[in-house]
Structures are given as C-alpha cells and as structure tokens.
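Appendix B. Chain record.
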Amino acid sequence: MKIALIGYGKMGKMIEQIALSRGHEIVSIIDIDNQDDFDSPAFASADVAIEFTAPHVAYGNYLRAWKHNVKIVSGSTGWLKEHGDDVRRACAEEGKTLFWASNYSIGVAIFSAVNKYLANIMNRFAQYDVEETEVHHIHKLDHPSGTGITLAEQIVERLDRKSDWQMGTLTQPDGTVVPAENLDEGKLTINSVRRGEVPGIHSITWNSEADQITITHDAHSRQGFALGAVLAAEYTAGHNGLLTIDDMFKF
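Structure tokens predicted for this chain:
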C-alpha cells in the first residue's frame, strides 16, 4: 500500500517506521515547510494519507487530500465542533473517505468497549456517581484530551442521570491547580493533569458510599497509537465513507 504522511513529528516518524516494517511504501511526507507537495504527483499516488497535525489545520488538510481523491486516516482532534457537519456531508454525499479516531491504540479500543458496557450496567445503579481523570505530557495544549471527551460522551449517551460532560480541575505542569467553576451534578466531570512526558492515562471512577470501581488505561508509549493508525490505514484502503474504530473492531 502507498501511504502519504501529513505531519512529521514524533507520531509521524513512528508511523513511518511501523508502516515500512509492515511492507508499505511511504510516497510523500508533508510537513509545515512543504505544503505545496499536496499538489504533487507523489501525494496523489497515495492509497491513504495518515494525518496527525494540529486542530486548526486538520480540516484544511482533509480538503487538500480529498482534492486528489486520497483517503485519509486522521488522529487530529478539536475540529469536530466547527467542521463536523461538513465532513459528514462530504463522506455521505461526495464520496470522500475519512477514518477518524481520537485515539488509535488497540488497548484504548478495548477500554472503550469496557467503558460502554460498564456505563450500560451503571445506568441501573443510581447510587454510583462517575468522574473521569486524564493525564498527559506537558506538551499537550488541549484539555480535556480528545480521548477523554470521547470516553465521557460514551458514558453520557448511556447514563440517564448525566446530560453532558464538563471541565473539572486542571493541574498544570508546574503543579498549579486551576479549580473547576460552577460544577453541575447533572454533568460528568473530566479532570485534566499535565505532567512530565506521560503518553496518556485515562481513568473512569464510579463511586458510591459503599465502594468504588475504577477502570484505567495507561499507555506505556506512543507505539500503540502508531500501530493502530497503520492498521486503520490498511482497513481504510478497502472501505469508504466516514469510518471509526467501531467499524474496524467489532467488540
């Protein structure tokens, strides 16, 4: 399979290594300093482009790839609110293809399945309140994380007593805690922590007066994310439309 890379930071380089090890060919690498290569024959020859960039440029990257009928696998977050409807329309009505996930880790896919199953059970037990904490490295600018929001939305969708999620405390890299404001008991709170070089830890805690249940996914490195992105590209090459982890893994 011919793969183009959009974004060549730590994730892009790791994806490149894994793709090559699985017998794929990297035909184009686009970063901030060679944007004109979107219009190159090399990029147009790609079966799939794997995109890991910043929220404010992700949607524009999709448009430039789709212009050349290149399918996209993307891990960029933060664009859904503004451009989600446009992306869904392009995939449903214009024949475009995007595989999008906030997290490509196989472990997170399994964790998400457990999260949804547990939320369905907990909808019957109102004595348990639920809260989430996500921990990431100090270079991550957005909070909560895209994965944290996805996990929270999965719970809200299944829990009658929560109408939405809300931002809780933010622990900054220097240890300063920014307190939460005007918390609503009817919403699921996501607390964020930024420290060190943590690849990503997500914990969901269900607490009652009698006991507490916590499920946690703790990433040891970014390798799991990179492998998942390449697996998604392999899947996307043979499928069309707006695709997600749930399409690739049937739990």
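Further analysis of this model is presented in Appendix C.
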